Amino acid sequence: MGIQLGFDEGTLRAAAGATSFSRGEDYVGAVAGLEIGDGTIRATVPGRETYRVELVVTRQAGLSAACNCPYGADGHFCKHCVAVGLAALRQADTVAPRLSADAGPAPRPAAPRSADEEVLTPWLESLDRDALLALVSEEAGGDPDLRGRLVLRAEVARADHALVRDRIKRLLHPGEFARRGYSDPDEADAYAQDVTRAVTMLRTLIAAGRAAEAVDGARWALWRLGEVYEAADEAEELLSPLHDLAAVHLQACRATCPDPEASARWLVGHLLGPLGKASPADPLDYRDTLGPAGLARAVELATEAGRQEPTDKAVRLRHRLLKAQGDVDALIAAYSADLAPNGATHLRIAQELDEAGRTADALEWAERGLRTAGNRYDLDRQLVEWVCARYVRVGRLDDALAVRRDCFRSQSSLTSYRSLRLAARACGRWEEERTAALNLLRASAGSSDFVAGVGHPARLLVDILLDEGDVEAAWQAASGHADDRQLLTLADRLRDHRPTDALGVYLRLLQPLKQATGDEAYHEVARLLRSIRACHERLGTPEEFTRYLTALRTELKRRPKLMKILDSNGL
Asked: What is the pTM of this model?
């Protein structure tokens, strides 16, 4: 029986919004190191940076997520969280739940078959040899790309090792364009297609029982791709072929179990090399092929590399290798050697202990992280989310509220206010908490030493009141403090019943736009003019707007594109 994750695609879409959900769908294939536990899902999503994602599901709070990308760090449900959620859903039908902390790491599951495969596979299995040959011949005749891939497979199946290696080398030779970077998208795309052809050759070798050759070929191809990636100024086009190459290398290793010493050296070199941050290669995926001796050697190599050149990349690799060894205490000791003052390392320790089934120790470390961070403005937000999710899970709602309250005081933001509101409502104490929070902001508005996560507390107060729909109170709080974004929002909401105030805002915001050029500025001028017209109509002074518009058009008549945009807006 598969895991019941407690959410579906609709839940992800509602949490992330349409834009982030759509972008997250494009990143599903990039998810690496997916770990599905009891109510917790963790993975990384590599790109130019490698982002860590954790999804937590509880009955009380539903689905929550944390990611250390800039957007996710602000408390948003980002595209990386969507990608991890979708990847987990795709594996949920085939992942068996962990029965105990002593059961050891579960094997990586295969992706479930799609609906099309459920129909297609049984039909293909029902065909005899002649019918299959006829079908393949017919489809290849009508599809040049398919025919090319089949011919490539046939050639590789007959070729010796030297010929295959030469063919892969020719495919991955970057040519002149790589030396000047990927300024031409067509050239970059063509190179990515050549890498994909090399992947097809390597898969053919594995299918032909020549997995050892495929290991060597994949390692060389990844080395060459690393050189190209390092030289390229725009390398996004290479991420997909990189993932394909890494996948075929892992497949070949599992098929042949190469020498552990050589594999340990390759893995450490690869992950500390140019492709290290972008590569999906994960030591946890290689623990069976490396074995205890290979893993121990890899730890030694990573440790030595870190001594010679201390980098965050080397530290992270050593931690991941220790995790692959399954020695939780050694991993915790490594983390403990360099605890971040904001609680981030305490969170990693808590997550490892939680995954090992040591939930009490996990919570103790997380709480220690909160105490260590104290009222730091950079308190790790994911630590806060983790602790509060655990408190809610076991019914410690008052403790969750206390953490949210402290977090708001040290990291005042609209996000932390919303979290405080949710926690206080769960305890039935929102009114008193709201009063205290707003009083704190009002008292701090005139203080020069107040540190708020999003800037001046008076502006945060305006955002909070707008979020709660109290427009009148927000308008009063905005006096002398609100920025242009807030003033525009206030004017739009006040326009119908306070047109004079709204008109003053619109006129002030339009003034500096007279000096600006470009489509964006011109469309904003048109948008403000429509709002100014609405205010005059509300005030019963349309002729005053006509005079203002006439004067403005006369002043800016030498900007034909602006005139055209105003015409298209009925202005």
From this structure: 0.64
